[in-house]
Amino acid sequence: MMKQYTPEELTQLHQVLYEILEEIVRICDKHNIPYFVIGGTAIGALYDKAILPWDDDIDIGMKREDYNKFLRIASQELKEPYFLSWIETDPHTPYYFAKVKKNNTLFIEEMFKDVPMHQGIFVDIFPFDRIPDNKLLRKIQYETVNFMKCCLMGKEVWLWKHFGKCQISNPTNRGAVACLLNRIVDMTLSKKTIYRLMVIMQSCFNSWKTLYYNNVITTTDHVLETSLNCLQSIPFGPLRLKAPNGLKEFLLYNYPTLHRYTEEEQEKINNHYPAALAFDLHLIQTS
Q1: What is the pLDDT of residues 213-223, one digit of tens each?
Q2: What is residue 260's predicted lDDT score, i.e. its pLDDT?
Q3: How far apart, in whole angstroms, are the C-alpha atoms of residue 228 and residue 83?
Q4: d(CA 245, CA 242)
Q5: Which of 22, 194, 216, 247 is most buried, most CB within 10 Å of its CB?
Q6: CA gap 227, 131 in Å, rounded
Q7: Is there a contact between 45 and 237 (Cβ–Cβ < 8 Å)?
Q8: Which domains are present in the chain?
Q9: How far apart are CA 63 and CA 34, in angstroms?
C-alpha cells in the first residue's frame, strides 16, 4: 500500500511551500517580473484562496522573457536558505524548467531518487511561450518538444523499457522507435545542447502574433495573451499572488469539468508521497 501524507506532514509541507513562494514573489515584485499561478495552484486559488488541502506542490508560470530575467536575478539574489535549481546551477537536474528549493530539506521524488541533484522541497517555475494557432503546427511543436524533454531526462535516468535498463519499477508507455531515437540523441549530443535545442523549439513562435501561450509540454495550460497582459491580484494563503485575468475562464478552458474535488474523489487520485521527506536535515543529523 502506498504511503499517504499525514495531516501534520501536509501542514508542515504547505508552510515550507508558502515560505519558498514568498521569496519568489519578493524577487518578482522587487524587479517587476510578471508571473502567474497555473495548474492545481490556480485551482486552489480559485476555490480555497490557498493551497488545496491535499496538494503537495506549487506551480507558477512566466513568459519566456520574464522567466529568463528571473533566472538571471534569482541566481544572485535568493536569500538563504533558498536555491535556484536549473540546468546551469544544478547540472544533473532532469527538468527543463526551474525550481526554487529550500536547503536542508528533502522531497525526493521516487522517479528521480538516484539522480545526484539538489533534492529539497520546491516550487516549480515554468517558462511559457507562444503556441501557433494552426493545429498542425501546434501538434508538431508539442511532439518535438516532448521528444526533446525525454532526451533531456534520459541523460540522467532511463524511464522506458526499450534500449536501456529502466530505472523505475513501472516503465512509462513509450514505443521502441521513440526510445531508439531517444538513445541515439542521448549518445550523440550533450545535455546542454539538448536543452538549448528544446528551448529553440519551445520559443520558435514567440515572434508570431498568436492567441495563446503555454509551457508547450502540456495541453492543459493554454492561456490567452490578453489574460496575461492584465494580471489580477488574488489572495493565496498568507500571500497575494498574480493570476491570469479571468482566472475561472482560464481554468475552464483547460479543464472543462472543473470543480473542487470532494474528499471521496481526492482519495482516487494517485498519491505523490515522495521517496523521502524531511523538513530540517539539521535535526536529523544531530539526533
Answers
A1: 999 999 899 99
A2: 87
A3: 27
A4: 9
A5: 216
A6: 15
A7: no
A8: 7-128+223-286 (3.30.460), 133-204 (no CATH)
A9: 8
